[in-house]
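Re-running the complex after MR caught last week's input typo. The corrected sequence lines follow. Everything else is unchanged.
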Amino acid sequence: MRVALFVTCLVDQFYPNVAEAMIAVCNRLGVYVDFPEVQTCCGQPAFNSGYVDAARSSALTLLNAFSDYDYVISPSGSCTGMIHHYFAKLFDDNIVRREMAQDLACKTYEFSQFIVNVLGVTDLHAAFPYRVTYHPSCHASRLLGIRDEPLRLLEKVRGIELVELEHQEDCCGFGGTFAVKMADISAAMVSEKVEHVEATGAQVLVGTDMGCLMNIGGRLQREQKAVRVLHLAQLLAEGLLQSSSPKPEVAR
Amino acid sequence: MTTSSESLDLQDRARRALEDDFLRTAVRFTTDRLKTTRKTATEQLGRWEDWRERGRQIRAHTVSHLDHYLGLFATNARKAGARVHFAADAADAERVVLDIAKQQAAILVAKSKSMVTEEIHLNRHLEEHGIEVVETDLGEYIIQLAGEAPSHIIIPAIHKTREQIRELFAADGAEDLTTDTKALTAYARKRLRETFLQADIGITGCNFAIAESGSVVLFTNEGNGRMVSTLPKTHIVLMGMERIIPTLADLDVMANLLPRSATGQKLTTYMSIVTGPRKLEEQDGPDDLHIVILDNGRSRQLGDPEFQEILHCIRCGACLNVCPVYRHIGGHSYGSVYPGPIGAVLTPLLQEGPEFEELPYASSLCGACHEACPVKIPLHDMLAALRRRQVERGRGTRGERMAFRGFQMAFSNARRYRGTLRMARMAQAVFGIREGRIDAQFGALRGWTATRAAPALADKSFRERYASLEQDVAIGSSASGTVQTSGADGQLTVGKTEVNRDE
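Corrected-run output:
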């Protein structure tokens, strides 16, 4: 099984720790993760702003990067959703590329999907003794259809206290360029999200998309709230280190 | 070119709404309640996804054969005694209605709620010709008193608090009114009863038009639709040309989908099926029934693979109730007759031109609208497609065009991408970085940093760190050595892993 990481531009440039955490978790499960360097970005910022040619050019780097792999894993439900729902249409005028796009969509998984649905693992023997609330990202849940994979992983973490986020299904107001273009509306949305996060009394906010977490986290920082913001992979990787139980035994 | 004043318009209106605590409280309160009741109503029905799919199929079938069904509907409505008028645009429809009013020497029109009459600004037109128009839906009556437009397609006065309503009624002549719902509705009922009895013409919209029988179906909760369509001597129906469903059996599906999605009701309180005017042997009903079928930009969507589905909409308003943008800015901020996600798509499609160009940007593309839509219209995809259409037409600011040209240059090749970001990493120092974050509020960053901290680019990107990353597993290895892809379908078979699996 050849597994490649689609790191996403945001994680690559702003949050490399998230990618490393993903790899650490995969390694713990015996999976080596390759990183083909020709990849750049799924093109979503351009696509959602209407610049389809620009989106196509950068999406093409992913088609080329991952053609030789069995699985592609990504730390983002949104970027994975872009591949699943728009890549085939993006390359509609070129049959070879369209097929590459379809093939890529079939084998690309968001991190929690890969762990739970492909590897069939929910218990990582991790420990994380904190009060945690989970924000489901819109694109992960609505575009990609992730419902409970992250929660199934979280529920098995030792010592964790999961609290439900009120209005969790409401968008945090990120929306890529929306956050800048419609800054006031976006600010109102993220402020309400932060109110809800605060109301849970959680010490940690966890999610599956760094776009949303950058937004909510940026607002939490500005309001000087002491809530840690972590990607699911970071929480699990940290939980592996904290765990006193031995490395999960894998039949060889 | 998107003029800056237009982009300011939407944003100014939004800003004003965001500062209006009454508005935000009222909208939050009601949309929250509707979200909850909708959820309950769909769960109670069961197999909601199947119902949605059936609804989508009915709408898709009808709209893709709209010429046929419209013809069938018109023929059958005429057979039943109705007079059918086709109106190409708003002016056409207004002319038809005004002609009828003049023939009847009408001075008072009673109306039940209809978005399509809002779309063509019918009230204003009739009033300009000396005809008094009274809205008889409670919400519509309230905003008519306030001199406003509806801010929601189902709950026109969603933005009004009880106290504001009490004040409006007091100004209208109500004495000693409390903010109690019963007292408020009792006042409106008393006032409106006079209108029902005196009106020369009743004007209604149309929720569904049944092709096989030529019937018009009205859903109301207050019974006013029934009054308006039976008491005055003349009944005029205004309908968008896409309101058609083929058969009465299809109404079964729609009668489940619409009220549950709109208000969380199992069924609308009053459902009237009007087939022709009063027959000789009948007691109630108008002498004349006119049906005005409006195009007004709708037929332009037919055959457009990206936008034809917008004609599937059954106007339930569920997309407004779940939309986080609508939740914060309310309906009037959109500046269009149809607000919310449906309005942000429908308005620029029906009315091309610069006025509503900004609307497709009033969305974070979160997809909540699509998820809530009872006929599964991909509104979020349409919003993105409308943005693309604007870019193709050379709209969009110069700065934006340059930014994405730069994106295309840098992101189409990993080497250039790497180089560009390395330069950005050096350049970001001008913003001042503290503990990995940027708070400076100038330049392109301002929209973001005015309300939240921005992360700084990491000292080293992941791709620069990957080479030195140690992975304590063999290259190409998998979970247990027994996990393999099998066959061409890439399906995974997991072998005898014991500890890690939970099923």
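None of the earlier attempt is carried over here. The longest strand of chain B covers residues 234-240. Chain B touches chain A through 88 residues (CB under 8 Å).
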